[in-house]
Design brief:
By secondary structure, the chain is an alpha+beta fold. Helices cover 15% and strands 37% of the residues. The strands form 15 sheets. Strands 9, 10, 11, 12 and 13 form a five-stranded antiparallel beta sheet that branches. The longest helix has 26 residues.
Length: 854
């Protein structure tokens, strides 16, 4: 009823509970309880509830009075124009998001519950309709009701035509049921016809459960393909494959509105009309071009070959990581940026937009790459390969992928990627499954294969071979999914990409070079030419190149030269005390027991070899310690600070040398393969190290008894465990464990089995003990240094984790450790990314190819 609120001088709507339903005490209580809940939803696109009450035997609601028409009435007139469809969709999604965040699911979203007003959409009956009609058992669903738009509730809630499959099965409906209904509304608004229909309720239910709506592109009023893809995502039968939040669906609709994509291919009759119009436009264009030939030169635009460049700064408050990727259609850029709270997330930037959009659920993202249709982005996070729809939704895990070195998505539905320190290349179906190592690019001593990049045929791909063995020739090779033949095509400093325009791009001497590439003959042709100077390139650790090319001839890249890091010393409050030594390519810094020196691997970017160096913290003097022609890694100080232990990659040899370098290094023992070192016990007897099974990407922790010369496992399970550190008294061991799906810090008894407790909350890596064993430090996923009090005695009683300070610590890509704590727990060395590097913009280049010779 339309009524007048005489107290507040306003027009309102009064909704009355029918007397035949108000007789039920349960219905009355539910009516009042849910009304109070909905009254807490204050949103411009939700009809406001002002009051709820009872007058005599009548239950009533006082609601906002709305002028307009229902969406049901509007659809009776035909399809809704595209711009209005998108606007209404965004507003509905926004209202649903508000409700879902309050724990409220509509369950009966339909055109009759959507009011179109001058101020926009208004949703009605939020959560109320389900309490206002008797239950209808599914056994009675034999024919369609004659009265339309009524809510049926009980064993099945909602209006059948807009109900999700899980609702029809009688399962508990969550927010994703509303997203299904949103997809139905979008389909009906865009096409003028329901997504699902049937002559009876039984046939309607059958259509919803087993069939798909007619493709929108086949209908006369066909919306753009991007709208159809979004609607299909909303109408996925499996709730896990839908958008997981209304916010993601709304953001997808917003993006389509911003891009202004035109209609997709319509019906055959409409195509005929457009083709005729196209021929007319072509004739007019030809006349215009002929006219342009006689215009003065100065009246024309820029020369066709003129290079155009523009830059994209990082999002406000965020810092870029390397490896941007431009979509094959040249419309979007994806990149990883670190937020102010230390989270590495994916961001999408439409090139025609002015702002970037963050993709939630992508924490820890690294090395993104696009699907061939520009619809999905694949990326690495938490030692998994994942993919996500750029229009929104939750990421999907494809397979395991620890220690990634890039990937590529081919046109035939296969993804190739490089993982593990050994750098082997594997393949996996684009839908996910068990990854298979390519036999000719598996774990090979002295070689690492990384940065695969598919050629347009979807079968052949480029990759970079990195040789730690002097007999191995590094460079870019061509390989195939269908044979084991490989061909070296160029000598480069790092990974290369193949542009669809027929060029291969690779780094050389700090420059990005281009060269014509003959894919059929597997060889480059013609002279190489410079494309851009000072290209951003991780020459030391990963050989990653920050360059991406679209299928439309655009180039996205980051400049700034070779990636370097800074060794910084902090106090507990996060105050930077000093920079240690010069900038360089470092990892795994380790403080001496007296806190006066640092042992750290440092990469020679030209020789691509890493050596152990020591740095005097007071004088900043560097001294090279290791002389092995290999990659030396994971240094450990002896308890007395007189010797340094380190491991070599890929041989697995473990050497020891006097810390002052007076005596040559000595081979201590040899592991079957590269064995990252974890700790050296305080009594000097035990060495803890990781044993990696490269075939299945699995890590356990072993102990080497230097007295007996024997080795044995101390942490062995079906899940990964690594990075073990013995407590100062030798009675406990702290370590990383991935048993929950993410790495957490645990402490257990040592050497005998006993108590075991989880220390970190929400993820943790790189445990470090304070010298007295009363505190444990680790790094959180958002790069904070965390501290946990460890009370003495038994049983183990850890305190609550406390954040000490935020860092710019490097991600764990090539190395396991990027920080160390002094024994007194007052100073911390952090291997940090330079802030100036993170602020460099991404450059987009148009017309980067050389002008053809005349």
């Amino acid at each position: 009823y339309k009524a007048r609120d005489t107290r507040l001088e306003r027009t309102v709507a009064v909704k009355v509970l029918p007397s035949h339903m108000s007789a039920s005490p349960e219905v009355q209580q539910r009516f009042e309880r849910e009304a109070k809940t909905i009254s807490q939803l204050s949103h411009p696109h939700i009809c406001a509830l002002y009051d709820v009450g009872r007058e005599g035997e009548t239950e009533y609601l006082v609601m906002e009075y709305l002028e307009g028409e229902t969406l049901s009435d509007r659809l009776a007139k035909g399809p809704v124009p595209l711009e209005q469809t998108l606007r209404y969709g965004v507003e509905i999604a926004d209202a649903l998001d508000k409700a879902h965040r309050q724990g409220i699911v509509h369950r009966d979203l339909k055109p009759g519950n959507v009011m179109l007003t001058k101020s926009g959409v208004k949703l009605l009956d939020f959560g109320l309709a389900k309490a206002m009609a008797p239950a209808v058992p599914r056994s009675q669903l034999t024919s369609a009701p004659t009265q339309q738009g009524l809510t049926q509730e009980g064993t099945i809630l909602g209006t059948f035509q807009y109900m999700a499959p899980e609702q029809l099965e009688g399962r508990e409906a969550d927010a994703r049921a509303d997203i299904w209904a949103l997809g139905c509304l979008l389909y009906e608004m865009a096409t003028g016809r329901p997504a699902f229909s049937g002559s009876s309720q039984a046939s309607l239910i059958s259509a919803i459960m087993t069939s798909e709506p007619a493709p929108m592109s086949t209908l006369q009023a066909a919306p753009p393909g991007s709208v159809e893809r979004l609607v299909r995502r909303c109408l996925a039968k499996d709730p896990e494959r839908r958008y997981q939040s209304a916010r993601d669906a709304g953001l997808g609709l917003e993006e389509i509105r911003e891009t202004g994509e035109g209609p997709s291919e319509p019906s055959r009759a409409a195509r005929g009309r457009r083709e005729a119009a196209g021929w007319l436009a072509a004739a007019l264009l030809l006349l215009a071009l002929l006219g342009a030939l006689v215009l003065p030169r100065r009246a024309r635009g820029p020369a066709p070959g003129a290079s155009i460049r523009f830059t994209i700064p990082p999002p406000p408050g965020a810092a870029y990581q390397v490896m941007p990727a431009i979509s094959p259609d040249g419309r979007r850029l994806v990149f990883v940026a670190t937020t102010s709270d230390g989270r590495d997330l994916l961001w999408i930037r439409p090139l025609e937009a002015l702002e970037s959009r963050m993709l939630e659920g992508t924490d820890g993202a690294a090395y993104p790459f696009w699907s061939p249709d520009s619809r999905f982005v694949a990326f690495f996070a938490q030692q998994k390969l994942k993919r996500i729809d750029v229009l929104g939704g939750a990421p999907q895990i494809l397979c395991d992928a620890p220690e990634p070195r890039g990937g590529s998505w081919g046109s035939r539905g296969t993804i190739v990627f490089s993982a593990q320190t050994g750098g082997q290349i594997s393949r996996v179906a684009e839908g996910g499954g068990k990854a298979q190592v390519l036999p000719h690019l598996g774990a090979v001593s002295g070689q690492s294969f990384r940065w695969p990049s598919f050629l347009p045929d979807g079968s052949n791909f480029l990759y970079f071979a990195f040789g730690t063995d002097p007999k191995v020739t590094s460079g870019v090779y061509v390989a195939s999914l269908e044979s084991q033949e490989t061909t070296r095509i160029a000598s480069t400093d790092g990974g290369a990409i193949c542009a669809s325009t027929g060029y291969v791009l690779y780094p050389s001497g700090g420059r990005l070079m281009g060269q014509r590439f003959d894919a059929k003959r597997r060889r480059v042709a013609g002279a190489a030419f410079p494309v851009m100077d000072n290209i951003s390139f991780d020459s030391a650790a990963t050989a990653a190149i920050a360059v991406s090319a679209s299928g439309t001839g655009l180039l996205a890249c980051q400049t700034g030269g070779s990636t370097v890091s800074r060794l910084l010393l902090y106090d507990r409050s996060g105050r930077e005390l000093q920079a240690i030594g010069p900038a360089g390519s470092y990892w795994e810094p380790t403080l001496s027991p007296d806190g006066r020196r640092l042992a750290v691997p440092r990469m020679d970017p030209e020789a691509l070899q890493a050596s152990i160096w020591t740095i005097d913290l007071e004088r900043g003097h560097l001294t090279r310690l290791s002389s092995q022609v290999s990659v030396s890694s994971t240094p450990l100080w002896s308890p007395d600070g007189r010797r340094i232990l380190y491991s070599t990659y890929p041989s697995g040899e473990v050497y020891v040398r006097d810390a002052d370098g007076a005596e040559p290094e000595k081979l201590l023992f040899k592991a079957p393969a590269f064995a990252p070192l974890d700790d050296w016990s305080r009594d000097g007897r035990y060495i803890l190290y990781d044993v990696i099974d490269w075939r299945v990407f699995h890590t356990d922790v072993w102990l080497r008894d230097l007295k007996s010369g024997e080795s044995r496992p101390i942490l062995q399970a079906r899940f990964n465990q690594s990075g073990a550190r013995l407590s100062p008294d030798g009675r406990r061991v702290a370590y990383e464990s991935e048993e929950s799906g993410v790495f957490e810090i645990f402490v257990k008894s040592f050497p005998e089995p006993g108590e075991r407790r989880q220390i970190s909350l929400g993820g943790g890596r790189q445990p470090r003990w304070r010298g007295d064993g009363k505190e444990l430090f680790y790094v959180s996923p958002d790069r904070k240094i965390m501290a946990v009090d460890i009370l003495p005695g038994t049983p183990l009683e850890p305190g609550a984790p406390q954040a000490l300070f935020q860092t710019r610590i490097l991600p764990l890509v090539e190395a396991r450790n990027h920080f160390d704590a002094a024994l007194d727990g007052q100073r911390f060395v952090v291997n940090s990314r330079g802030l100036e590097d993170a602020q460099l913009p991404i450059t987009i280049v148009v017309n980067w190819e050389p002008e053809p010779k005349r």
